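User: I'm putting together notes for a lab meeting next week and I want to include a structural view of one of the chains we've been expressing. I don't have a solved structure, so I'd like a prediction I can at least talk through. The sequence is below, exactly as it appears in our construct file.
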Amino acid sequence: MIEHLPILQVLVPLLGAPLCIIVRNPRMVGLFALSISTITFLVSCSLLQQVLQNGTIVYELGGWAAPWGIEYRIDYLNSYLLLLVSAMSAIVLVASQSSISRELPRNRHMLFYTAYLLCLTGLLGILCTGDAFNVFVFLEISSLSSYTLIALGNDRRALTAAYQYLIMGTIGATFIIIGVGLMYMMTGTLNMYDLAQRLPEVHNSKTVLSAIGFFIVGVCLKLALFPLHLWLPNAYAFAPSIATAFLAATSTKVAVYVLIRFIFSVVGPEFVDTVLPLQEIFVVLGVSGIFATSISAIYQLNIKRLFAYSSVAQIGYMILALAIGTPLGLTATLIHLFNHALMKAALFLAIGGVVYRVGSAQLSHFAGLGRQMPWTMAAIVAGGLSLIGVPLTVGFVSKWYLVLALLEKGWWPLTILVLISSLLALIYVWRIVEWVYFSSPRIVLDEVKDPPLSQLVPIYILVVANFYFGIDTSLTVGISKKAAEMLFGGVF
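Assistant: Thanks for the context. Below is the predicted structure for the 492-residue chain, given as structure tokens.
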């Protein structure tokens, strides 16, 4: 069984998804989905342990060796992210039953969990596979189920948001498959390891350059890099709270992984740097995204939209760190991938608790909730402190390594801009604090109190994780450094 863990990582949620339609009882289907997600988390823990002990795992599907067959490759990079995605999925699902009971009718619960597990399958498949075409297939599985999750929101605007995401996502997927198809045309292989061996022979071809361009633009659409982020704010704002928490913690992180894997393992950073002005483009878009979307967040009246714009800004930090082009810069990107998932999952679950009690995520409805929902508001403040980068939080660790990487490169002006951008985060977090603690309650109802323990427990697991991994960085920094060294060493 141990040797088949790579395929079980994907098969378990894939087989569990259709079974959710059979288990029609809302409570039972929630418990079933949680058990499936917990199994995937345990599998990812075992895979990470094996990678740390024995190195890269290569699993050949059906016994067919690559490039004729499809293989899964699990190394430091994707085992680290498999742990993150499966952990976030399991934690979020703990809060799902009580949350969606208020936001979705009972007859949609089984559809929600089916789409949720399919989305999880797609994300885990993207991380596991060593086949470029399979990346596209799993990307579409996760995307199509994401559209469904968003459209299930009880606000009619959720349908518009899902449709907008569908259009943008389809354009991104089309660009990706064009890029994959052009690379296949020039090399005759879809295996990423084999592509890395054959692409140098045709690097000077305009077809390969076009393929790289199509692929990178398509992935940037999927990861919501500014200014290709227009689908994200509404998607996060109008989706069910559980779907928002899950997608914010996992979806864009996996898209960043695809970009990193493609640049470092398939094409090679040296070729990208010499042929395409990717570093300059990423620096400009990363910094522009940080400031433009942080300023937009300040003026939002819906808390979910506010933190959605904040997510685009955080993606800007990741891309800026990636653009530095050094092992320390890539380490900063990978650390922030993990840390940002902890921040946003905690924040969106806490907002889901407010929606559970108040029925709205409008900023005006947060007035005075610091006295009515003290534990929930404390969690939001803790997540906000992490976004700002206060010491002892994961946000501080992320910005510390980003600043170190910038200083190592000698990019002093960008270091100053990163520090200034933290003040913008302080402004929009303070707006929430002001409404929560210094305004009179506008909703005086007996039921306006902290959500049930089924929601508070996962929220505080994530809040504690925000501080724990801000103090003990052995897991995040240790594995991120190993993954960065592996990628810069040309090991796949």
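A couple of points you could mention at the meeting. The beta strands are 57-60, 71-74. The radius of gyration is 21 Å.

User: Perfect, that's what I needed.
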